Amino acid sequence: MKNSIAERIADFLKNFPPFFSLTYAELVGISKEIQVVHVEKNHILFKIGDKTHPFFYVVKEGAIGLSVTSDAEEALIDKCDEGDILGLRPFFAKDNYLMTAKAREESLLYAIPIDVFKPYVSQNADVLNFLLESFASNTRNPYDKENKGKLISENVIYTDQNSEIQYFQPISYTKNPITASRKDSVKLVAKTMTNSKIGSVIIQDNNLPVGIVTDKDLRSKIATGLFPIDIMVDQIMSSPVITVAENISIAETQMMMLKHNVGHLCVTVDGTNKSKIMGIISEHDVVLAQANNPGVLLKQTKRATRSKELKAVREKLNDLIQNSIDKNIPIQHISSIVGEINIAITKRAVELAIEKMEQQPPTRFAWMNIGSQGRKEQLLMTDQDNALVFEDVDEERYDEVKKYFLELAEKVTKTLNKVGYEFCPAEMMASNPMWCKSVTDWNKQYNSWINKPGEKGILMCSIFFDYDFIVGDEKLVDMITENIFANIHNNQLFFAYLGTDALKNPPPLGFFRQFLVEDDGEHKDTFDIKSRAIMPLVDAARLLVLSQDIKGINNTYLRYKKLAELEPQNVDLFESCADAFSTLSLFRTEEGLLNSNSGRYLNLNELSKSDKVKLKNAFQPIRDIQDAIKNRFQLTYFT
Amino acid sequence: MVFDWLKKVSKDYPKFWENYLETFENKPNVSDQKRYVVFDCETTGLDHRKDVILSIGAVAVIDSSVLVNDSLELFLKQELYKPEVAFIHGILKEGKEEKIVEAEAIIRFLEFIKNATLVGHNVNFDIEMINQALKRLNVGKLKNDSMDTDAMYQKFKGLQEDQHSSLDELCKILKVEKSDRHTASGDAFITALVFLKLKKRLAIK
């Protein structure tokens, strides 16, 4: 019998995987058994712990959010919209749902009976593969990298943001440690320790730990002459050895060491000294475990005496970023921590350079980071952009003073380059005579940008409006700031040009909501997330804060937050821009960490469908903010 | 039995009608979910005395779901055929769909709807068309309760009784995607979606 409704549903399904792998007749057959379910906004389709439904669902219209609960907080982990599949759990498990599906908009879903669809899964390899793959891509979200390749609804591992305290992470330890048996001579053991450059040896009997000998034992018991050097090691070993199980946290490790007043712990299979030795944890491991701790990194930076040490800090910083992203720490927090460490590194580089110079600075100066460093948005190793300002001096001294600071800047930029911040290809660095000058000269420079904005001038200047004081005398930077704001106040021409500049990159979606990709060159068919999505938001934020006389907020996210505070009528717009900026930064950072590059070009083919949706959702605010700018600065005539 | 003679004097109805009437005698269980049937008739015109049914589309709604596996789609053989309306609903006199005579269509329709609440857009017209066909079979009128999506929308919006909305308008307002318009099944399905949304908004069980 004819069934037009089923045909209509089949017409929809055939556009989406895995259904397009089936014949039309099969789809109509499946569609005849479907129920169309209506879910109102904020109503729940199923929640964690609910018995599984005899259906899985395809979103026809609207959007369904999937979330898990962690410490009484709901955490959205995926959003399904048109054509997306959800609720696959009953295919694989008989127990209850592990996620909550809640309508984010009024939605219509096609409920496909599991029993009806099952035969197609087993008969059709494409369908099976799609289901397996979609689980894999579903898990491509920052919360559970560890579970790649597993079904999201199968295996929800969610690390709560608040539980992010490194001390509760398991400590890593030395596996298969060097051991000695109790009848070995002290001398032999000491030789082994010296050759292997280790500070302790576990004494074993039949692979069970019976004691431990450390440097301290050798010092206090042998070197003092208390025992002869030829005795067997069990005479001087500390016994029993303190044993722990694997996966002990850093905090627990420290507690155990303090409690038993020891510097080493022995890891055994079950945590007692009646099971096999697995490894050893030393105080050094505890220190290492905290090396990714921002505070430790800052301390190391301050104590660094060579560029090599700074480089080590910067490399550890990458691990810190990756860990933080894995642990789902908001990108904004990561940025501010990384920003502080970047500043500390730069500051230390300047201090080290001054030490290397033969004489102290001839006058007061300030080192500034500009561009993304100035905005504290630099998570990845990108170029260095910086500038230097020095106090006004007599004309006859000017050349000599400038020469000193150029030389200083040269040293600093070289150090930074060694650390990993590459030289700026456009030479926007303090070592360039253009960007190393006195307060008066800087004011002249800014005034020419502000009052005679030509397209080229604006292009050059926009990053100079994001500057951040690093080291030296901050008053000099304040003088520049005052001059800028005095000059831009109500300066319509300047804002019109800056506005035009901010609009030069339109929202990156084509007419059919497809991504605009690069047409040619080495990045063909990749998506330039920096210039197409991030920069438009950065430019818009800069323009708006300048026009609002907001001083001292350089960070794009914080700028939008501040704007939202100042203009309650536009709070939605600015909040959405702040969120979009965070999302985009996260994408770029992940891409950059993955490929050890600047993360600027995204390979769209490697993005999952849900990531693409997330990306596209972040583009809407770009369109909105650009429209707002067009109106506010009356740019219709300029564009 | 005392009442047997009563049954005897009552008109001797055909079996299908007896079966239909029986569905109303069963007291519904409290746990039974209420079944709605959303339906639409394509007709040769709007005059229920002269025009006849070309096709019937019907689909069941329970709770917040449209049950595609509980649906009916019928195409009727017809004597009266107006070529000028064919281009609207696309049913040609000798179309490729399997066609049945009106009597069979009505019998299958009654078997399908049972005692469900009938739902349609301007449902009274469709009910009247069915009633006319029932009359030709010498049986009574439809006994089902009915709900009209136009009236539901009036109630939802607090509109006057003379302020009517077309199905197209409701689709637009309630964001129901239209396609397959002007086939009975297509309209029945769209009406079902409109009904689901209005039902939730009016908190009808």
UniProtKB/TrEMBL annotation, chain A:
<dbReference type="InterPro" id="IPR005105">
    <property type="entry name" value="GlnD_Uridyltrans_N"/>
</dbReference>
<dbReference type="Pfam" id="PF10335">
    <property type="entry name" value="DUF294_C"/>
</dbReference>
<dbReference type="InterPro" id="IPR000644">
    <property type="entry name" value="CBS_dom"/>
</dbReference>
<dbReference type="InterPro" id="IPR014710">
    <property type="entry name" value="RmlC-like_jellyroll"/>
</dbReference>
<dbReference type="Pfam" id="PF00027">
    <property type="entry name" value="cNMP_binding"/>
</dbReference>
<dbReference type="InterPro" id="IPR000595">
    <property type="entry name" value="cNMP-bd_dom"/>
</dbReference>
<dbReference type="GO" id="GO:0008773">
    <property type="term" value="F:[protein-PII] uridylyltransferase activity"/>
</dbReference>
<dbReference type="InterPro" id="IPR018490">
    <property type="entry name" value="cNMP-bd_dom_sf"/>
</dbReference>
<feature type="domain" description="CBS">
    <location>
        <begin position="173"/>
        <end position="229"/>
    </location>
</feature>
<protein>
    <submittedName>
        <fullName>CBS domain-containing protein</fullName>
    </submittedName>
</protein>
<dbReference type="InterPro" id="IPR046342">
    <property type="entry name" value="CBS_dom_sf"/>
</dbReference>
<dbReference type="Pfam" id="PF03445">
    <property type="entry name" value="DUF294"/>
</dbReference>
<dbReference type="InterPro" id="IPR051257">
    <property type="entry name" value="Diverse_CBS-Domain"/>
</dbReference>
<feature type="domain" description="CBS">
    <location>
        <begin position="237"/>
        <end position="297"/>
    </location>
</feature>
<dbReference type="Pfam" id="PF00571">
    <property type="entry name" value="CBS"/>
</dbReference>
<dbReference type="InterPro" id="IPR018821">
    <property type="entry name" value="DUF294_put_nucleoTrafse_sb-bd"/>
</dbReference>
<keyword id="KW-0129">CBS domain</keyword>
<feature type="domain" description="Cyclic nucleotide-binding">
    <location>
        <begin position="56"/>
        <end position="138"/>
    </location>
</feature>
Automatic annotation (TrEMBL), chain B:
<dbReference type="GO" id="GO:0045004">
    <property type="term" value="P:DNA replication proofreading"/>
</dbReference>
<dbReference type="GO" id="GO:0003887">
    <property type="term" value="F:DNA-directed DNA polymerase activity"/>
</dbReference>
<dbReference type="InterPro" id="IPR036397">
    <property type="entry name" value="RNaseH_sf"/>
</dbReference>
<dbReference type="GO" id="GO:0003677">
    <property type="term" value="F:DNA binding"/>
</dbReference>
<comment type="function">
    <text>DNA polymerase III is a complex, multichain enzyme responsible for most of the replicative synthesis in bacteria. The epsilon subunit contain the editing function and is a proofreading 3'-5' exonuclease.</text>
</comment>
<dbReference type="GO" id="GO:0005829">
    <property type="term" value="C:cytosol"/>
</dbReference>
<comment type="subunit">
    <text>DNA polymerase III contains a core (composed of alpha, epsilon and theta chains) that associates with a tau subunit. This core dimerizes to form the POLIII' complex. PolIII' associates with the gamma complex (composed of gamma, delta, delta', psi and chi chains) and with the beta chain to form the complete DNA polymerase III complex.</text>
</comment>
<dbReference type="InterPro" id="IPR012337">
    <property type="entry name" value="RNaseH-like_sf"/>
</dbReference>
<protein>
    <submittedName>
        <fullName>DNA polymerase-3 subunit epsilon</fullName>
    </submittedName>
</protein>
<dbReference type="InterPro" id="IPR013520">
    <property type="entry name" value="Ribonucl_H"/>
</dbReference>
<dbReference type="InterPro" id="IPR006054">
    <property type="entry name" value="DnaQ"/>
</dbReference>
<feature type="domain" description="Exonuclease">
    <location>
        <begin position="35"/>
        <end position="204"/>
    </location>
</feature>
<dbReference type="GO" id="GO:0008408">
    <property type="term" value="F:3'-5' exonuclease activity"/>
</dbReference>
<dbReference type="Pfam" id="PF00929">
    <property type="entry name" value="RNase_T"/>
</dbReference>
